[in-house]
Amino acid sequence: MNLAQQAAAVPPQWCTAEEWELRCQLAATYHVFDHFGWIESIFNHITVRVPGPEKHYLINPFGLNYNEVTASNLIKVDLDGRAQSPTDHPVNRAGFIIHSAVHAARGDAHCIIHTHTDAGIAVSCLEDGISHDNFYGAQLHGRVAYHDFEGITVHAGEQPRLVESLGDKAVMVLRNHGLLIVEENLPKAFWLAWTLQRACEIQCASQSLSGASLPLSEAVRAASAHDGEHFDPDGRLGQKMLDAAVRRMEMARAGLSIDFRA
């Protein structure tokens, strides 16, 4: 069953139609991340909050590759990391520590993405962090927070400091560690994760060249941060990008292509 067929399937009895739709969208996003290579073995997480007062959220089963995640095997957990849906898999402790802290503290944190990409970790190890002097980095102007590395994130004592470091920002560089994205929905988080990844890739490439970097003005950075998110007339930029990424992935898997002469 491909992702489109899965989305059209009847939800299991233990799942509402609204939750099933989120599960299908989240599972598709895990597969897109795998297709793009934004993976770290069985580690890292993309979580989405399930509607309701309990602040339950969906997380990938620990031990599965991203391309093994499905709508039905995603685990719904509470803020204490206890499973609230049928599962044969555990929840990664590090994923619980980071994601539960932010989901609990931020009312707008409906989707959280944590990555360990090569470019992301490389930039996280730089004292100055993310450069806002390239096309993608400029779009992150005013969005980025930083959190100092305290070791592997498996200790509950770090949670309040993670939340304090994040504040009201949508992006946090976990220094010497990786990247974190916090957004109001999954498509918007996908757009921001893509932009952040490209910013880090371009920064790594440009800083490997000889010669001085060309800085941008604060005014240009601010304008780029606004326009990068709001230029789409339909206001659906993230959804369009995610849908296109899913189509590209599924066509690649099936060995299909569009006839440009059509």
Automatic annotation (TrEMBL):
InterPro entries: Aldolase-II_Adducin_sf (IPR051017), Aldolase_II/adducin_N (IPR001303), Aldolase_II/adducin_N_sf (IPR036409). GO terms for molecular function: actin filament binding. Residues 24-204 form the Class II aldolase/adducin N-terminal domain. One of its GO terms (cellular component) is cytoskeleton. It comes from the Bacteria. SMART domains: Aldolase_II. Pfam families: Aldolase_II. Belongs to the aldolase class II family. This is Class II Aldolase and Adducin protein.
